[in-house]
Amino acid sequence: MKKVFILSLLMALFCITGAQAQIKNQLKKPVKILVLCTGNTCRSQMAHGFFASYDKNIQIYSGGVNPSKAINPNAVRVMAELGIDISDHTPHNVSEYVDQSWDYVITVCDNANKTCPDFNGEVMCRMHVGFDDPSEAVGSPEFIDSEYHRVRDEIGARMYALYQFILTDQNNK
């Protein structure tokens, strides 16, 4: 367990330093990714922001199975600390996307994983990578802030690992 945590921490630090913007190998062809959570206000928006920062050939979208009216301001703030601006993002309903084809559909919360609709378009790979919801954190302002940072860093590490997998997969074809 310690090795997994240390690896995740190192990957998060790699993302935090902005090294993802300096990747020399870019995807050979566009990859279309949809990231889903319940409200499309926090976790899916963070993942959306990270993927958009990795590679111009990623066509990234995010949605919610029960979207809220606005993006979480704490998600915007912690992403801005990394130089990733998601302030213009808005929540979208997954129903907007069910008729499209996707290379990857990724759920980032258990509720979205359980209630994700069937897609009419082709989905090459559907996966679940769950994260805690920092908006549900209870405690001091410092603790709540630390939860947003922890979850942001976990999302960054896991999405970067997925990006590396996609890159390697394309280079091996």
Task: Describe what this molecule looks like in 3D.
The protein is an alpha/beta fold. The protein has one domain: Rossmann fold (3-Layer(aba) Sandwich), CATH 3.40.50.2300. The protein contains five helices and four strands; from the N terminus they run αβαβαβαβα. The chain has helices at 2-16, 43-54, 73-80, 110-115, 141-171; strands spanning 31-37, 58-64, 102-107, 123-128. A four-stranded parallel beta sheet has the order 2-1-3-4. Helix 4 links the parallel strand 3 (102-107) and strand 4 (123-128). Helix 1 crosses helix 5 and helix 2 (43-54) crosses helix 5. The radius of gyration is 15 Å and the shape is globular. Mean pLDDT is 87; it is low at 1-24.
Features:
single chain, Rossmann fold, 173 residues, 5 helices, 4-stranded parallel sheet, alpha/beta
Oligomeric state of shown chains:
single chain
3D shape: globular
Strand content: 15-25%
Strand numbers in spatial order across the main sheet: 2-1-3-4
Question: What topology does this entry show?
Answer:
Layout: H1 2-16, E1 31-37, H2 43-54, E2 58-64, H3 73-80, E3 102-107, H4 110-115, E4 123-128, H5 141-171
Parallel strand pairs: 1-2, 1-3, 3-4
Helix pairs in contact: 1-5, 2-5, 3-5
